[in-house]
Amino acid sequence: MSYQKKHTKTHSTYAFENNTNAVAASQMRNALNKLADSVKGDEKLRNIFENQLDSFFSVFRRYLVEKSSGNTLLWEKIKSPTKEEVIDYGSLKPTHDDISNLSKLAVLKLNGGLGTSMGCVGPKSVIEVRDGNTFLDLSVRQIEYLNRQYDSDVPLLLMNSFNTDKDTEHLIKKYSANRIRIRPFNQSRFPRVLKDSLLPVPSHYDDALDAWYPPGHGDIFESLHASGELDALLAQGREILFVSNGDNLGATVDFKILNHMIETGAEYIMELTDKTRADVKGGTLISYDGQVRLLEVAQVPKEHIDEFKNIRKFKNFNTNNLWINLKAVKRLVESSSLSMEIIPNQKTIKRDGQEINVLQLETACGAAIRYFGGAHGVVVPRTRFLPVKTCSDLLLVKSDLFFLEHGSLKLDPSRFGPNPLIKLGSHFKKVSDFNTRIPHIPKIVELDHLTITGNVNLGKNVTLKGTVIIVCSDGQNIDIPNGSVLENVVITGNLQILEH
């Protein structure tokens, strides 16, 4: 069969340490062959599916090798990056609106995530975040303004997953009259792996969605190439791809970084920003064997976790705002040179009323930095990292701390110091509950820290300053009345004020 022949050569390049790995690889290959055979009558679809299974099998074999060899970084060899490997944003040349390189730029948003963690159905990019605008609306407005302002034609690419592609395809129709070219494409669909048997969960191409997973954003390079979008961009003269998470509202096109990348010939630039106590687990750049690499918390030995979280030693972390040379991507993909560290992600699915443990073998695009020439990090202002992962983040970006300008969030100039630390409890986890309990966003320009847990509701025109802690006891409720000004207070127990 064509799929099995395709693997004959590459399989021999992997040296398995023991017979167990060889057997597991052989069983997986046979199972994938059967999966490929389940596609009937559509040759194009089968070819796409086979290519995805081919990529998955490569990751699976590396996982077996790394698992048995304990392939980890040696802590004593980890060094701080050199002055050439991480530079400060302030050292970049001013641009004075030098826009000559816009014709070489394309922008890509990672759009494969669902809003399930915030209690939403469908793509996370359609959650309303500011003034009636969704994540996707703001991304479109930013690029449209850029194109209108500078008479450019920067395209916006959306890397969807099988979870988000249909909804996104429908949603982007409303932008058809806008001055922007939107190019959606799908990342791979990999089979989940049964943890006990190390065999694929699905047995047929059309098996249930929970049998599959999108393999992390490290799949961007293969998917760009396989979709044809990479060659299309290169044919248009596009050389630089600015990649960011779809939920990072601070990730806007930056001329200084774009021009710096082209002037230096760097093939890859990672934006870093200073760690706070909220970011101690964030991956950071290190120097290892004379090479710049990304160190993730999952790679750190247990006895060194506290050291890794020390913000004095590891001062900054990866924002996942990445600037990548497209010619380099083509070279590395076509030479099969990208082997990013595998992140085993454990999940459970239900079958016949029973929970089954499964594995997702994922990769991260930040880990690819070591394969690109002249790669380095740039430490950028915190304003370029404004992700919305939870409703605590949602409160921040909806507040008067920011104002909206051409699709970009700008910090209120009267704000002094870092953004406030906001922690909302489980009663605020879902967007619907958040909107019910906080129907009117409080004023927080002078807020430093906010913690709210329990059955708490905020009224209109509430102002929060300094440190505010509201902890409601189980079975009780706290209603903060309209017009309240809370400054450096702790409220506990039960509070209900009826207004006359």
TrEMBL record:
Transferase in keyword set: yes
Residues annotated as binding substrate: 217
Sequence intervals crossing the membrane: none
Keywords from the named record: Nucleotidyltransferase, Transferase
GO biological process, one term: glycogen biosynthetic process
Enzyme class: transferase
Keyword hit for Transferase: yes
Enzyme Commission code: 2.7.7.9
InterPro entries per UniProt: Nucleotide-diphossugar_trans, UDPGP_fam, UDPGP_trans
Coiled coil: none
Catalytic reactions of this protein: alpha-D-glucose 1-phosphate + UTP + H(+) = UDP-alpha-D-glucose + diphosphate
GO molecular function list: UTP:glucose-1-phosphate uridylyltransferase activity
Protein task: Plays a central role as a glucosyl donor in cellular metabolic pathways.
Protein name (record): UTP--glucose-1-phosphate uridylyltransferase
Gene that this polypeptide is encoded by: UGP1
